[in-house]
Amino acid sequence: MRSSLLKRLGLRLRQMAPIAALGLLQIVLCLSAIAQPAIALDLNQLTNQNTSPFSPQSITAENLDAAADAVEQAAGDVYEGLETTKRIKGKTELRNQKIEEGRDHASDKLQELADKARAADSPDELSVPERRILQQYQKVN
After folding, report:
1. C-alpha angle with apex 98: 93 to 104, nearest 5 degrees?
2. Which of these, 116, 136, 138, 135, lies nearest to 126 by C-alpha position?
3. What pLDDT score does 3 carry?
4. pLDDT of residue 32
5. How many domains does the chain have?
6. Helix 93-119 and helix 82-89: axis angle, to 10°?
7. 81: left (phi over 0), alpha (psi -120 to 50) or beta
8. 0.90 surpassed by pTM
9. Distance between CA atoms of 8 and 19, rounded to whole angstroms?
10. Of the candidates 87, 40, 130, 27, which has an alpha carbon nearest to the alpha carbon of residue 122?
11. Are 12 and 71 found together in one domain?
12. What pLDDT, on a 0 to 100 scale, did the predictor assign at position 74?
């Protein structure tokens, strides 16, 4: 009687092994999802320590034209890879049209900023976000 009970119990344990493995997998996945934001915060803190905060005075009247040139070049660079993007993402004509409209809008905004920077006598005539954008494009180019 005991041997048949143990056989049934052993059979049930073997049937439950995959279920237990799935349960453990779920626990591991939940714990990794909980720990991931903490790891990301640590990485962000490490990367942000090396960057200096933006200073509105970092764009000067002397380098305003150079920054405007960099932004104007970026306005033209917006169209690089347009055909590839349309081929990969633009499955319909409407999508292709929206992709082109988005690139046109981005290019127009960058061109407006370049024109505004050229027309400005000093960086103080530009808003802080505009000066930040000019500084970033000047760094890249």
Report:
1. 125
2. 116
3. 63
4. 65
5. 2
6. 150
7. left
8. no
9. 17
10. 130
11. no
12. 92
Report pLDDT for 95.
92
3-state DSSP assignment of residue 119:
helix
d(CA 59, CA 122): 9
Picking from 51, 71, 90, the residue at the C-terminal end of a domain is 51
- Residue 38, classed as helix, strand or coil, is helix
Same domain, 78 and 32: no
Residue 133 token pair? 């954008």
Using 70 as the pLDDT threshold, list the residues of the chain that sit under it: 1-17, 20, 30-57
Distances, alpha carbon 29 to alpha carbons 18, 21, 32, in Å:
16, 12, 5
Q: Return all residues near 86 (Cβ < 8 A) that are at least 6 apart.
A: 95, 96, 99, 100
Q: Could you give the CA distance from residue 106 to residue 137 in angstroms, rounded to a whole number?
A: 14
Cα–Cα dist 137/131, whole Å: 10
Instruction: Write out the two tokens for 139.
Output: 């760094």
